[in-house]
């Protein structure tokens, strides 16, 4: 898919289209994705052989360097497209006079050179080494030490840390800041001028940036974990390796399809040739007259697609979530001996079960185009229950992380004081805290009859805009930012202590908690982004809002409904319980 899709983009933007700035950006981005796709067979063989490298030293250097080179180049071109779009909005006259294909070509050449410069150390320091087990390792060594044991040398370790920090800065932190600032400036401009009706190119760039965020967060976390690879449980490393591999592969292979789908009217889509679709997707149409009917048609198709997918997702996930979490509640509440771990899992499953119970109401709400048919009382109860259960699940994930950290730091105290009674009291406190934080939703959630609707809409009513913003900021703090910091700190402390003590052989529950925490990172980041977008929903492109809504809801449902399946698969002790 990656070779065919990106090959088609390269052919269209390089040979079929006239030279334009947008075509040059997409051509170079497709070349980077194409290069990454070429490498995938080698990486697949590498993983299939249990990370043993069969292709020799020269291919070790070439393939691994090409991997980082293409990944970094793709990041640079996404950043360039964001900055270019920002300049186009800020300085339209200057852009009309100076934003030329020649300038874009020079900038592209500079970006490729920058990618080579940043990734060249991997070409110089890549080596292969055969272990006693017969496994051939392709690794980075910044010294001339002859064996893998020398990796623990202080000089090697310090250099490796510096290289990983530089890589994280250049492939995630700095690009993330530049992209965020660029689109924040664009959002401000859109609020003061009617620039949201600019062309389909804006939608294409938005999809590219969204895919960047989704695909690079797992990779950045995995790179950070790699610094402590000898101290982190294998299940955590394998989980993040799987996530970053999946997201990067999907990002590089399916982005061309996103380009076509996001910029085309779906009606009659398959009556056009593939290359005509790509051609129309990548044309630079900044000076073309606006076509309101075509824009409205695209918006209707995006809404319809989002609604159909969301409704089916709600139905399926409701059934799976109720059954799966119901089983976990039955097992941990009635079949297993009461322990602190079973208390955490029981309460987490109760929170997920409660969220699953709200899905039929949310599905109906979505099917009726966000028109609420159940009355004011149910509006308050259901919407409060949604926020209450989501917040409670986050609090219990945080509690499990802190609990595991306390076990590692104070094993004697934990053995004497870490009782089911204490876990129960803490759980009650967390439920009370979740209710207090979500109680404003119960107070301020109202229904109102809109002028052009037959039924009521459900929304949070605040007399002032700043109150609404304050509520969403509080929600973001308590559902993502603060939990993220606590969980990260807890597992960093665990990693440091594991390096000094042989604590890695703790029970099966560590695997369960690790999976739950991984699902938290993956599932809450899009929801937090969507909550931020909602603050500016009247200023944001509708395609962006619907894209993040679908992504956030999908991952939330998957998190709440499939976590019990993860428990069963990863915990051997559940086998004999039935």
From TrEMBL:
Highest taxon in the source lineage: Eukaryota
Subcellular location(s) per record: Cell membrane
InterPro entries found in the cross-reference section: Formyl_rcpt-rel, GPCR_Rhodpsn, GPCR_Rhodpsn_7TM
Keywords noted in UniProt: Cell membrane, Disulfide bond, G-protein coupled receptor, Glycoprotein, Membrane, Receptor, Transducer, Transmembrane, Transmembrane helix
Disulfide bond found in the keyword field: yes
Membrane topology: Multi-pass membrane protein
A GO biological-process term: inflammatory response
Cross-referenced Gene3D superfamilies: Rhodopsin 7-helix transmembrane proteins
Record-annotated G-protein coupled receptors family 1 profile domain positions: 5-259, 324-567
Transmembrane regions: 25-46, 66-91, 103-125, 165-188, 200-219, 239-262, 309-332, 344-365, 377-402, 422-448, 469-493, 513-536, 548-570
Main location: membrane
PANTHER family given in the database record: CHEMOTACTIC RECEPTOR, G-PROTEIN COUPLED RECEPTOR 33-RELATED
The protein, known as: Probable G-protein coupled receptor 33
Organism in which the protein naturally occurs: Latimeria chalumnae
């Amino acid at each position: 898919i990656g070779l065919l899709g990106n090959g088609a983009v390269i052919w269209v933007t390089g040979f079929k289209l006239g030279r334009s700035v947008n075509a040059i950006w997409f051509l170079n981005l497709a070349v980077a994705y194409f290069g990454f796709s070429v490498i995938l067979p080698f990486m697949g063989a590498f993983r299939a052989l249990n990370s043993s490298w069969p292709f020799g030293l020269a291919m070790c250097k070439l393939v691994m360097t090409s991997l980082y080179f293409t990944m970094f180049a793709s990041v640079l071109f996404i950043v360039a497209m964001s900055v270019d779009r920002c300049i186009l909005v800020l300085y339209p006259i200057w852009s009309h006079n100076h934003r030329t294909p020649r300038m874009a070509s020079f900038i592209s050449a500079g970006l490729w050179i920058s990618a080579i410069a940043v990734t060249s150390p991997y070409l110089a320091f890549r080596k292969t080494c055969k272990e006693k087990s017969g496994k051939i390792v392709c690794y980075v060594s910044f010294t001339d030490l002859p064996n893998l044991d020398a990796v623990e040398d202080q000089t090697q370790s310090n250099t490796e840390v510096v290289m990983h920090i530089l890589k994280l800065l250049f492939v995630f932190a700095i690009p993330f800041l530049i992209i965020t600032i660029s689109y924040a400036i664009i959002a401000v401009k859109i609020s003061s001028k009617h620039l949201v009706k600019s062309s389909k190119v804006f939608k294409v760039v938005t999809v590219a940036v969204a895919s960047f965020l989704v695909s690079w967060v797992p990779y950045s976390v995995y790179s950070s974990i790699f610094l402590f690879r000898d101290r982190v449980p294998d299940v955590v490393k394998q989980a993040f390796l799987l996530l970053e591999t999946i997201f990067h592969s999907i990002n590089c292979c399916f982005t061309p399809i996103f380009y076509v789908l996001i910029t085309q009217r779906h009606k009659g889509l398959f009556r056009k040739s593939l290359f005509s679709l790509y051609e129309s997707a990548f044309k630079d149409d900044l000076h073309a007259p606006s076509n309101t009917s075509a824009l409205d048609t695209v918006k209707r198709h995006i809404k319809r697609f989002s609604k159909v997918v969301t409704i089916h997702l709600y139905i399926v996930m409701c059934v799976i979530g109720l059954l799966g979490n119901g089983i976990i509640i039955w097992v941990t509440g009635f079949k297993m001996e009461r322990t602190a771990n079973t208390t955490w899992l029981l309460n987490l499953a109760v929170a997920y079960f409660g969220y699953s119970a709200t899905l039929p109401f949310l599905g109906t709400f979505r099917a009726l185009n966000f028109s609420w048919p159940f009355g004011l009382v149910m509006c308050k109860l259901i919407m409060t229950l949604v926020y209450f259960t989501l917040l409670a699940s986050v609090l219990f994930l945080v509690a499990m992380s802190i609990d595991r950290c306390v076990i590692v730091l104070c094993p004697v105290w934990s053995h004497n004081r870490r009782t089911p009674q204490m876990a129960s009291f803490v759980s009650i406190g967390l439920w009370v805290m979740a209710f207090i934080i979500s109680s404003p939703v119960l107070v301020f959630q109202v229904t109102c009859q809109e002028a052009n609707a037959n039924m009521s809409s459900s929304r949070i009513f605040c007399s002032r805009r700043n109150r609404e913003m304050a509520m969403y900021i509080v929600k973001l703090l308590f559902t993502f930012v603060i939990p993220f910091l606590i969980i990260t700190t807890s597992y960093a402390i665990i990693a440091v202590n594991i390096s000094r003590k042989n604590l890695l052989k703790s029970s099966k529950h560590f695997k369960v908690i690790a999976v739950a925490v991984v699902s938290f990172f993956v599932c809450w980041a899009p929801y937090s982004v969507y909550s931020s977008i909602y603050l500016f929903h009247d200023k944001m492109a509708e395609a962006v809002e619907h894209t993040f809504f679908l992504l956030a809801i999908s991952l939330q449902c998957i998190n709440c409904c499939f976590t019990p399946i993860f428990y069963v698969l990863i915990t051997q002790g559940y086998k004999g319980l039935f």
